[in-house]
Amino acid sequence: MELDLGKLIKYELNADEYIFLLMRILGKKVPEIIEKSVSLESLEKREFIKIVEGGFSKRSKLTQLFSAVLETAKVEDWIDEWRNLWPIGEKSGGKPVRGSRMDCLKKMKLFLARTGYTKDQVFAAAQAYVLERKHHRYQYMTLANYFIQKDNDSPLEAWCELISQETEREHRFGEFHKEV
């Protein structure tokens, strides 16, 4: 988990408050040292939460702060859609290229937590990869679960970086600019 310094400044949060809110949003146990240092009243006063009996509820400011986290936190809701990008019936090395749902789910959660990429970035990278393989009749196509992570290699991360670089170049130089 990385702290987003820009968000800390923009939302006027200290590191403990940010970690506290993030861990609670993700449903994880907050370390006692952080829990003791955070004032719920202060967070309520700044409109992140609403204190209710037995805890607190999210307000729109909190949802906005962690929108990308909330979107990707529910990988279960969209992992099948992501796997469906891989062609049905195609095999690579004798295995279906869609990979197993459970392995994709487990690896995707770890990938998103480690890298911070969003659902949209992951979909764009996968779509670009599948389209590229389609032009080669899916020959040597990586299985969906191995595309996320296999051993210490993550083709998904490499494709996300590539898409990000291409998007940045298009933004700076225009859609039809190509490096020579």
Fold and architecture overview:
The chain is 59% helix and 7% strand. A hairpin with a 2-residue loop joins strand 1 and strand 2. The mean pLDDT is 87. It is elongated, with a radius of gyration of 20 Å. It has a two-stranded antiparallel sheet. A two-stranded antiparallel sheet has the order 3-4. It is mainly alpha-helical. It contains 11 helices and 4 strands. The two termini are 37 Å apart. Helix 7 crosses helix 8 and helix 9 packs across helix 11 (155-173).
Helix content: 55-70%
Radius of gyration: 20 Å
Q: Trace the largest sheet across and list its strands.
A: 1-2
| Record field, number of beta strands | 4
Strand fraction:
5-15%
Order of helices and strands: HHHHEEHHHEEHHHH
Distance between the termini: 37 Å
Q: Please state the overall shape, judged from the principal axes of the Cα atoms.
A: elongated
User: Structural class, please?
Assistant: mainly alpha
- The number of helical segments is 11
Contiguous runs where pLDDT drops below 50 for at least 5 residues: none
Mean pLDDT: 87
Largest sheet: 2 strands, antiparallel
Question: Could you give a short description of this structure?
Answer:
It is built from 11 helices and 4 strands, in the order H-H-H-H-E-E-H-H-H-E-E-H-H-H-H. With 180 residues, the chain is mainly α.
